[in-house]
Amino acid sequence: LTMYEHGAIAGRVIDVKTRKPVPQFEVSHMNGHWPLFSESLFSNGRQCDDSEGLFEIEEVYVGESTVVARAPGYAPAMAQVVVESGKILRDVTLELGRVSAKALSGI
Q1: Sign of CA pseudo-dihedral 36, 37, 41, 47
Q2: Which among 25, 42, 71, 86 is most buried, taking Cβ atoms within 10 Å?
Q3: For residues 99 and 75, is the Cβ–Cβ distance under 8 A?
Q4: C-alpha to C-alpha distance for 72 and 30, rounded to whole angstroms
Q5: Does the global pTM surpass 0.90?
Q6: Torsions phi, psi of 52, nearest 5?
């Protein structure tokens, strides 16, 4: 039996221009360093509804991890973090930038 050590990631999702919280978003993580955005990063995502844009992800394997967030009308954001055993990595801020209607429609 192999025992894996875990930690947690906590932070918030904000609008990059207004610096205000994004209250409804999806957040996820994947073990390891993911340099490019991929839809597979959201394979274990969960919806969040928090007026302050706060989230916490528990039971994250120790070591490098990639945290991602997305919300309707915004481009996704990602951050590379290092999780330590038994600790909560706090103050992870994911900054979402608004996407124009033209960009969304492909015009």
Answers
A1: positive
A2: 25
A3: yes
A4: 21
A5: no
A6: -95, 0
| Cβ atoms 38, 78 nearer than 8 A | no
Which two tokens mark 89?
């990595």
Length of the chain: 107
d(CA 41, CA 69) in angstroms, rounded, equals: 9
Sequential DSSP letters for the chain: -PPPPEEEEEEEEEETTT--B-SEEEEEEEES---S--GGGGTT-EEEE-TT-EEEEEEEESEEEEEEEE-TTEE-EEEEEEE-TT-EEEEEEEEEEE--HHHHHT-
- Contact in structure between 13 and 96 (CB atoms under 8 Å): yes
Residues 47-66, mean pLDDT to the nearest whole number: 96
**Structure token pair of residue 103:** 């960009």
Going by DSSP bridges, is the β-strand pair 88-98/6-15 parallel, antiparallel, or unpaired?
A: parallel
Q: What are 107's two structure tokens? A: 């015009």
